[in-house]
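Retry 2 of 3 after timeout on previous attempt. Resubmitting structure tokens to design endpoint.
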């Protein structure tokens, strides 16, 4: 089973990503900030790292820079998961050592495409991609995520 580390400070985003990955048969580990993510990679390297850019203690740019400095992790696939979606952001991110880029809110079809591209044995068959993410992860999980969103 392929293991994916989610490094994301927002618990709702972590839960959504975890659900989308687990229903496709991936093992999931989670980190709440950049320092924790770096420590987890060093302790038990995942097959792929989904890395938020804007995190406390150490942002995604610093994490990927540290990883790329270590010969053990130069080939670890790292996908930026970010709200930075302005013109030029993708290029800046890709030129910083990331292997992929996903903008928030997460599009499950694009997530699966990135996983397929970066992992040798993608787990893409178990859930149809033409369904909204709420149906993919189940009604109960979707309600839990929506109910935790901050009220305007």
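Retry 2 succeeded. Sequence:
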């Amino acid at each position: 089973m392929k293991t994916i580390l989610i490094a994301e400070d927002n618990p709702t985003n972590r839960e959504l990503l975890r659900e989308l990955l687990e229903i496709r048969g991936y093992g999931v580990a989670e980190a709440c900030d950049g320092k924790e993510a770096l420590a987890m990679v060093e302790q038990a390297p995942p097959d792929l790292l989904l890395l938020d850019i804007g995190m406390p203690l150490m942002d995604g740019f610093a994490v990927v820079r540290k990883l790329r400095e270590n010969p053990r992790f130069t080939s670890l696939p790292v996908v930026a998961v970010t709200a930075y979606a302005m013109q030029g952001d993708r290029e800046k991110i890709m030129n910083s050592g990331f292997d992929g880029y996903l903008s928030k809110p997460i599009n499950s079809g694009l997530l699966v495409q990135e996983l397929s591209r970066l992992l040798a044995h993608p787990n893409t068959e178990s859930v149809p991609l033409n369904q909204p993410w709420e149906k993919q992860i189940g009604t109960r999980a979707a309600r839990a995520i929506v109910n935790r969103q901050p009220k305007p």
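Attempt log closed. The domain at 3-147 is CATH 3.40.50.2300 (Rossmann fold).
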